[in-house]
Amino acid sequence: QNLLAEKVEQLMEWSSRRSVVRMNGDKFRRFVKAPPRNYSVIVMFTALQPQRQCSVCRQANEEYQVLANSWRYSSAFSNKLFFTIVDYDEGADVFQQLNMNSAPTFMHFPPKGKPKRADTFDLQRIGFAAEQLAKWIADRTDVHIRVFRPPNYSGTIALALLVSLVGGLLYLRRNNLEFIYNKTGWAMAALCVVFAMTSGQMWNHIRGPPYAHKNPQNGQVSYIHGSSQAQFVAESHIILLLS
């Protein structure tokens, strides 16, 4: 009981400083794996160092931070659930222990017993939005988290600038608006939108993959990703040249 109380007290202290507790191998084994535990732990396994070139990790981490902050500053916050993170460069031994070779990965470690298959979040199918993570956590722990996002006015500003630009162009050409009725121009614009939305370039813009991958062990450069769930920027350029 004393050991459990010490562990909970330490986790609460860390959580009061930062919503997501950073873990290395020793901390992970002591606070997440080793009994006794009467709390659930959500762990994000990731690779955030710049040399890893994992843009998806950075995007997933932003959503994870939003979720952890929503829990930390909610009225329902308690010592029954903690959010932690294990970076590959700080806990490579943990990745090896769990036979984990991909990042990011989200796992739930229950208060008793080992994690089951459902305790690993299906990121490939569901995505990593904070709201989806919160729903998964509610299913695994019965802890319901209402996600609060910080206000973001960049979209509103961009829309206002676009409307102002279009309005200004129409005002300058108010005496010559025949171009609005040009069917060929509208058809070309529609084709550009269709090609942009269905091309690999749009996927690259959303996911931000590296141009290619260089194996740090043998120096070999790969221009085609080994998985069907991802791609490198070079792949879309290769397809462009072939087509």
Automatic annotation (TrEMBL):
Coiled-coil region(s): none
An annotated GO cellular component: oligosaccharyltransferase complex
Membrane association type: Multi-pass membrane protein
One GO-annotated biological process of the protein: magnesium ion transport
Chief location of this protein within or outside the cell: endoplasmic reticulum
Family: Belongs to the OST3/OST6 family.
PANTHER family: DOLICHYL-DIPHOSPHOOLIGOSACCHARIDE--PROTEIN GLYCOSYLTRANSFERASE-RELATED, TUMOR SUPPRESSOR CANDIDATE 3
Protein known as: TUSC3 protein
